Amino acid sequence: RMVAAVLAGLSLLSLLTCGYLAWGSRRGGAGGAPGSPLGEEPAAGTPSSQPHIIFILADDQGFRDVGYHGSEIRTPTLDKLAAEGVKLENYYVQPMCTPSRSQLITGKYQIHTGLQHSIIRPTQPNCLPLDNVTLPQKLKEVGYSTHMVGKWHLGFYRRECMPTQRGFDSFFGSLLGSGDYYTHFKCDSPGICGYDLYENDNAAWDHDNGIYSTQMYTQKVQQILASHNPRKPIFLYIAYQAVHSPLQAPGRYFEHYRSINNINRRRYAAMLACLDEAINNVTLALRKYGYYENSIIIYSSDNGGQPMAGGSNWPLRGSKGTYWEGGIRAVGFVHSPLLKNKGSVCKELVHITDWFPTLITLAEGQIDEDIQLDGYDVWETISEGRRSPRVDILHNIDPIYTKAKNGSWAAGYGIWNTAIQSAIRVNHWKLLTGNPGYSDWVPPQAFSNAGPNRWHNERVSWSAGKTVWLFNITADPYERVDLSSRHPDVVKQLLRRLSQFNKTAVPVRYPPKDPRSNPKLNGGVWGPWFKEDEKKKKKSDKGKGGNKQKKNKNKKKAN
């Protein structure tokens, strides 16, 4: 009896994990919404010509960390979806979380939203500027139901910054950039700690059941799909926390990776394996509930991998947080029955800002003339193999980042101050100035030891004072041959383009931290702390003070 009880318990536990589910024709199952049994026929009505849009954003997945890029980590779901769709092999994002997410949701470069420096910190009174129209807002205009599950990281200091105020009908996930996968707690600094799991605008204490976030988010996605009418268009933005640190994963996902000695790489592999299975379950749910045939699934990483946290960008140079290819060239693909050239590879230039106009056009929406977008409609490029309308990418201009000591206007031919961190791509050419960040190539052998080992890394010792680099990325995607001294005319052309972009930049938004952000002052929860009433009160007090001063002045005059 005791053995039978143990086996029954193990059987129940296995059903709760994010393993592959045999959906078949069964009713019920993990993730099904209450009162919406599996196998139920879609509601009657005229099917929409507008496609269902499912955007899946992974966090910190390295360029090499997918099976079809030669990784030792198995990703059968991603490999299959990409092989049957279109692989994006000249696809760029930003080097960190907030920048990529802001550009996805607005279609604008960072210099045009004021978020060109670093990320939005939990204690900063900062968020994606409210005057920017967002992708879900535009989709709602043309009848889409919009839902977000996962990591927001676009600011929350005031209620108006929350996902449900920026175009999403529902939100389930975290507001910050990272946190514990099981407890959903995050400490920004010693003593500044709080809970970070939300359902719409409130802390989701009821969901705090110690479930691993990848599994929990997948179950939520299944519930949304089960309860929505597939004859009406849906936009589902799934921003998984994985594979961002802290490196945590359910035990059973380590089974295939015990041979990896490096503990960070082993944990990272387990996290990615769980993520791959979760995406399989999302795809199965799309099929089961009648969405798949009219759906577009887009998969993207938000930036390059972090080798010290288990990620690999080999053979690309650099890592997350840098403007080398390893920081900004991402894993990406589109899978859809609506694609014309299925099973192909797109080598045309595509950037994360392009999803905004591309998806709005596919949704039969309108892009207002007064919205100055930096993205392009690239659907024909992806679906039909046509040339990309994009010929350049401003990777960024960050006037606040630590200046390169030897940078100068002279080094920039009087066109540009090369002390400033910037990077730009024009056709085949890529130019970097200032301090581009960690520049090693980190081969697979670097993960062969139990601890971090940089002896395997390849480095180049640049001449002292170097602040300008030029590469032909088409011929040299690994950035091994600097051509800046050989092609000064090309350098000047790209510096002029940088200067032109810089003239359109808005001021940087990077305020100091606000002590009112401490979760201790907000019931132990990270959340909006800036109250509109306080702002009005201050204005009112100021007005009263001004009236008092006027009265005193009049009194003096009368005397």
From TrEMBL:
InterPro entries: Alkaline_phosphatase_core_sf, ARSB, Sulfatase_CS, Sulfatase_N
Biased composition (Basic residues): 536-559
Signal peptide: 1-24
Keywords, ordered alphabetically: Calcium, Glycoprotein, Hydrolase, Metal-binding, Signal
Obligatory cofactor(s): Ca(2+)
GO molecular function: metal ion binding; sulfuric ester hydrolase activity
Domain Sulfatase N-terminal, chain residue ranges per copy: 51-363
Keyword Metal-binding: yes
Annotated region described as Disordered, given as residue ranges: 506-559
One Pfam family per UniProt: Sulfatase
Family: Belongs to the sulfatase family.
Database matches in PANTHER family: ARYLSULFATASE, ARYLSULFATASE J
Protein name: ARSJ Arylsulfatase
Species of the source: Menura novaehollandiae (superb lyrebird)
The gene coding this protein: Arsj
